[in-house]
Write a structure and sequence with these properties.
By secondary structure, the protein is α/β, with parallel strands linked by helices. It has 18 helices and 18 strands. Helices cover 46% and strands 18% of the residues.
Length: 435
């Protein structure tokens, strides 16, 4: 599709400018704006084994590295409180946040004591959906997101997940067991694997429906430079030409027809109810502090990046500093681009809010982006109050977000390049290559 190719190139170019991080030695992030709601993001960068398609900051798990790390996460959380922050939501990502359950629970409990937390979201892997874990997480976590990627045994073996987490059938049974423990259980899936056929995709969709999950997210496979080689060696080269067809199958199966089992919560998230917590916190919270190694904070016109080194992170926190390694300041136009992308990804752009915040219309502020999307048939409603999306528009937002996240992954690659030698060896050295 011509519009997909044009959009891919445009977002790739914009992302390279947008993610222009400069070194910084700021001791802490700025304080909050009075009356503004904030979410807290916490990053836990440890995994039992590393997946070939993942570009997030993560390291092979070792208890002697993880225990002091969790202790310092809690110290950094209190630094945010000292700055005057309060949080109404908490999102814990990774890595594998549930890798040390007692440490995770202590961290959540502290957040709930110190802040006005109304909802907690957390990521996990299928092997942690067992009663001993679920019972401790119940009541602490409102929305659990489990990384499944596919129920197909062949694909799971390609991704080196079959031995780690079991067959697709056993993962399905674990999800059925886990679903009643949480207000919302999200099943994370990936589509457009090179070896994935339409038949495999349709079977994955059948198993999502059978699982009883209240939410599912279907991400397109994203090949950033750091994982391109390992992806090609394990699952093959990504073919974007069939991505739209796969997305249409997903949307038709989950949210099509007169009585669909799900509804769109974002361009690639599907919910069973309208008030479900959304998978992508960046839609509900445009600004948020992030703590932990590899965390990325967005505040006002500035993005801050925390060191990707766990060793340097611990040193910074223990010295009374946050672990900021770089920052970027966005122009008004780039802030508008970010708002345009995030709100449309969340399926509705609020034109009145836009006018209040930027002092111009969407068409005047972003004439090229607005004109392209309108000419492409992306807009279902475009009136004085809002812009909403057509099915084609939803797919174009998938393309836009796919390229945006690849750009973020490129930023992560830059941060990883600064790792001390011993930590680079953990990721790339002999015997510890990315798997």
């Amino acid at each position: 599709m011509l519009s997909e190719r044009l959009l891919t190139r445009a977002v790739r170019t914009c992302s390279s400018r947008f993610m222009n991080i400069k070194p910084c030695d700021d001791a802490r992030i700025p304080g909050p704006v009075a009356g503004k709601p904030y979410m807290l993001y916490i990053h836990v960068p440890f995994c039992e084994r590393l997946c070939p398609y993942c570009s997030f900051n993560r390291f092979p798990f070792a208890e002697d590295r993880a225990v002091p790390y969790f202790k310092n996460l809690r110290k950094e959380m209190m630094m945010a409180k000292e700055l005057g922050y309060d949080f109404e939501a908490l999102y814990i990502g990774g890595g594998t946040p549930t890798i040390m359950l007692d440490e995770l629970c202590e961290t959540i409990d502290l957040a709930k004591r110190e802040f006005s937390i109304k909802e907690v979201s957390c990521e996990t892997n299928p092997n942690h959906l067992i009663p001993s874990y679920l019972e401790k997480l119940q009541g602490r976590v409102d929305r659990m997101s489990v990384g499944v990627q596919s129920f197909d045994d062949g694909l799971l073996k390609q991704m080196d997940r079959y031995d780690k987490y079991g067959s697709g059938a056993s993962i399905l049974e674990s999800i059925k067991v886990a679903a009643p423990y949480f207000k919302s259980l999200n099943v994370d899936m990936i589509f457009n694997f090179p070896a994935q056929t339409e038949e495999i995709l349709r079977r994955d969709l059948e198993m999502v429906l059978e699982s009883g999950t209240s939410q599912t997210t279907f991400y397109p496979l994203m090949a950033s430079p750091s994982v391109e080689k390992s992806l090609a060696a394990t699952v093959g080269k990504v073919d974007y030409d069939r991505e739209q067809r796969f997305y249409e199958i997903i949307s038709e199966t989950l949210a099509g027809g007169d009585n669909p089992p799900f509804m769109h919560g974002s361009a690639w998230t599907f919910n069973k109810s309208e008030d479900a917590m959304i998978d992508e916190y960046i839609v509900d919270y445009e600004e948020y502090p992030a703590i932990g190694s590899g965390g990325m904070t967005y505040l006002g016109a500035t993005q801050y990046v925390n060191t990707f080194s766990v060793t340097e992170y611990n040193k910074a926190i223990e010295s009374g500093r946050m672990s900021l390694m770089g920052k970027a300041t966005f122009s008004k136009r780039n802030r508008m681009r970010y708002r345009f992308m995030m709100q449309l990804f969340g399926l509705r752009l609020d034109k009145r809010q836009w006018k209040r915040d930027f002092g111009c219309s969407v068409a005047a502020g972003l004439p090229v982006e607005y004109g392209f999307m309108k000419a492409s048939g992306a807009f279902a409603i475009d009136d004085e109050e809002q812009i909403t999306l057509t099915p084609k528009g939803r797919y174009l937002m998938v393309v836009m977000m796919r390229q945006f996240f690849i750009g973020v992954n490129n930023l992560r690659d830059q941060a990883r390049a600064a790792l001390p030698e011993d930590e680079r060896d953990l990721l790339f050295g002999a015997g510890c290559a990315m798997k």
